[in-house]
Amino acid sequence: TTQCPQYILEEALLGARGDTTTILCSQPRRVAAISVAERVSDEMFEDSVGRLVGYQIRLESRRSSETRLLFCTTGVILRRLVEDPTLKGISHVIVDEVHERQWQIDVLLVSLRALLQGTRSDLKVVL
């Protein structure tokens, strides 16, 4: 939950791909999205959530143009897919807690599969 997104981001930043790397990490619950973002931000020695590491839940968002790792509820990512079906600007999608088998996670997985088979074969998906 906390380490894999950090490894991906740190590797991108060290490899000078930080400007082109933006990671969405799904969390099934609002509280988890906020607490994990706070934890990862702390582990990355950030002053506060909202700069390099952020979160977005329904009706609340702490992120900026600098944010490269965004923890979201699954519903927020689904809504984003409706608004932008190609997930322009996103390099990685991490689907956390995939074993919980909620309907939103199932719909997200089907949507990501269609995206990978279509226009975004460059998108990295981590389960």
Structural notes for this entry:
The structure is a single chain. It contains four helices and six strands. The chain has one domain (3-126): P-loop containing nucleotide triphosphate hydrolases (Rossmann fold, 3-Layer(aba) Sandwich). The chain has a six-stranded mixed β-sheet, sandwiched between helices. It is globular and about 35 Å long. It has 127 residues and is α/β, with parallel strands linked by helices. The longest helix has 15 residues, at 103-117. The mean pLDDT is 94. 40% of the residues lie in helices and 20% in strands. Helix 3 (74-83) packs parallel to helix 4. Strand 5 (92-95), helix 4 and strand 6 form a beta-alpha-beta unit.
Summarize the structure.
The protein is of the alpha/beta class and 127 residues long.
Count of distinct strands: 6
Mean pLDDT: 94
Rg is 14 Å
Distance between the termini: 11 Å
Can you tell me the residue ranges where pLDDT is under 50 for at least 5 consecutive residues? none
- Which CATH architecture? 3-Layer(aba) Sandwich
Number of helices: 4
Organism: Phaeodactylum tricornutum (Diatom)
Keywords: Hydrolase
Domain Helicase ATP-binding: 1-127
Protein name: Helicase ATP-binding domain-containing protein
SSE blueprint:
Blueprint: H1 3-14, E1 23-27, H2 30-43, E2 53-57, E3 60-62, E4 69-73, H3 74-83, E5 92-95, H4 103-117, E6 124-126
Parallel strand pairs: 1-4, 1-5, 2-4, 5-6
Antiparallel strand pairs: 2-3
Helix pairs in contact: 3-4
InterPro entries: DNA/RNA_helicase_DEAH_CS, Helicase_ATP-bd, P-loop_NTPase
GO molecular function: helicase activity; hydrolase activity; RNA binding
Domain Helicase ATP-binding: 1-127
